[in-house]
Amino acid sequence: EEDRFLNGMAAAALEQAETPPNLELSFLTVDVEAVLDREKLSALPAVLFKRAMRLVAGVLGASLSSEQTDLLLTGVAEQEKGSVTAEGGDVVIEWDKERVHARQLALTVPFRSPLTAPGETISEEFGWTLQADNGTYAGNRPIRAALETAVDLERVKGPLHFRTSQPGDSMQPYGFEGTRKLSDLLSEAKLTKAARARLPIICDMVGPLWAPGVCLDSRAAPTNGTSRVLNLRFGPSELEPKA
């Protein structure tokens, strides 16, 4: 009964302190990371703080020893920044002035697959879905950070596919002059490392065309003369990400 009570109190405290990362793309990493408000956590009684940290580590598949929870309690209360690695070395809990970030350390394996168009692509591993439908251009201007867009099919070079972002990738965001490194665009979108590794980048033979929630490349944007478009929509799937 005492454990159930403490777990319930700790879970409620975590819910109040949670600040999901990656904005609209938060569904990308719900199974591998959690971001919490440091000030709210620091205000908890010591026993509740420790139980909350144990719950977070447990959700991510790790456990914390008494010594590790003591280090977290002292560190979050007194140190500007620091980190504690959970038992087994698979999860780290880091903190800075504003937040406490718990995350899995396992690296995402790079991926590349043909885009099902028209049709739906579902990632069971990462819990996202990508819908592609043929259509006619309605005249709407692309919105930079939207989770849906339209691609001018007559300006696409070869079959479309999606893949992990790669070093050297660059894009010219719609409405801007000059090219930018995709890595910089993902960073400016405030995506965590885990989210960047899981976000599918839509590409043709030339390179990236659309980074969902980040930007559309100008060379794929519809114009007044566009007749055929591919409407793309990205979002969470109904399937839970695989652990």
What topology does this entry show?
Blueprint: H1 2-17, E1 33-37, H2 38-42, H3 46-59, H4 66-78, E2 82-85, E3 91-95, E4 99-104, E5 112-114, E6 119-123, E7 128-136, E8 148-152, E9 161-163, E10 170-171, E11 180-181, H5 182-188, H6 193-198, E12 201-203, E13 208-211, E14 215-216, E15 228-236
Helix pairs in contact: 1-3, 3-4
From the structure above, extract its key features.
five-stranded antiparallel sheet, elongated, alpha+beta, 243 residues
Summarize, please.
With 243 residues, the chain is of the alpha+beta class. It contains six helices and 15 strands.
Give an overview of the whole structure.
- The protein has six helices and 15 strands.
- It has helices at residues 2-17, 38-42, 46-59, 66-78, 182-188, 193-198; strands spanning 33-37, 82-85, 91-95, 99-104, 112-114, 119-123, 128-136, 148-152, 161-163, 170-171, 180-181, 201-203, 208-211, 215-216, 228-236.
- It is elongated.
- Strands 5-9-12-13-14 form a five-stranded antiparallel β-sheet, with no helix packed on it.
- It is α+β, with helices and mostly antiparallel strands and 243 residues long.
- A hairpin with a 5-residue loop joins strand 2 (82-85) and strand 3 (91-95).
- 25% of the residues lie in helices and 28% in strands.
